[in-house]
Design brief:
globular, DUF2931 family protein, single chain, 5-stranded mixed sheet, disordered N terminus
């Protein structure tokens, strides 16, 4: 009787400990891939294809990507959770300011997955804590400039790399109505400031 009681007590203790571990530990494995663009330089994300060799290939939703690139609102933008973390990301987008299509295949740098697990300072409404940089943000700027950051909060981003995409074939007339709306909002800014290709 005592032996059965001890065995049950040990099993309950082990189960409880495993439950506590899963709740309190933050392994940083909840990953996201998001996209950002500089203010006034909106893009339309046409295709985002991700791949983890030997495991999975999948598509991430696209659409409008706009502000912000930096400052109190950036880098930040739309995106989605990703599991597993990809090794390759293919992106294809349309720049409203340039009326140009761009595409690029990004090979994720070796060791980035491990770097994203390192805790970083995060300020909340309640306290200051350490949280892994679980978000990979990909910035798309005029001229096909790509900048990648890892972060867990705006303000603790770390730049990972810069890449140069090349223009690809595409018909800007497919975005005729969206371009009209874009120019109505940002046309005056573009006339004054241009593409500022050396700014990003």
């Amino acid at each position: 009787m005592l032996t059965i009681f001890l065995r049950c007590a040990i099993c309950i203790t082990l189960i409880a400990c495993q439950g506590c571990t899963s709740i309190t530990s933050d392994t940083g494995e909840h990953r996201r891939v998001t996209f950002a663009a500089p203010e006034h330089y909106d893009v339309w994300l046409m295709d985002v294809l991700l791949e983890k060799s030997g495991e999975r290939s999948w598509r991430q939703p696209g659409g409008t990507v706009k502000c912000c690139w930096k400052g109190p609102k950036g880098p930040a933008g739309p995106g989605a959770a990703t599991d597993p973390f990809p090794e390759l990301i293919w992106i294809h987008w349309f720049s409203f300011a340039e009326q140009e299509h761009y595409a690029h295949l990004i090979q994720i740098p070796a060791g980035l997955n491990e770097r994203m697990r390192e805790p970083a300072r995060v300020v909340t409404n309640v306290d200051v804590r350490k949280v892994p940089r679980h978000t990979l943000t990909i910035g798309l700027a005029p001229g096909g400039q790509i900048v990648m950051w890892i972060q867990s909060q705006i303000g603790n981003e770390v730049e990972v790399m810069r890449l140069q995409a090349k223009p690809v074939e595409g018909d800007p007339s497919h975005f005729q109505e969206r371009t009209k709306a874009y120019l109505k909002e940002h046309g005056d800014y573009l006339k004054t400031h241009g593409l500022q290709l050396d700014k990003w």
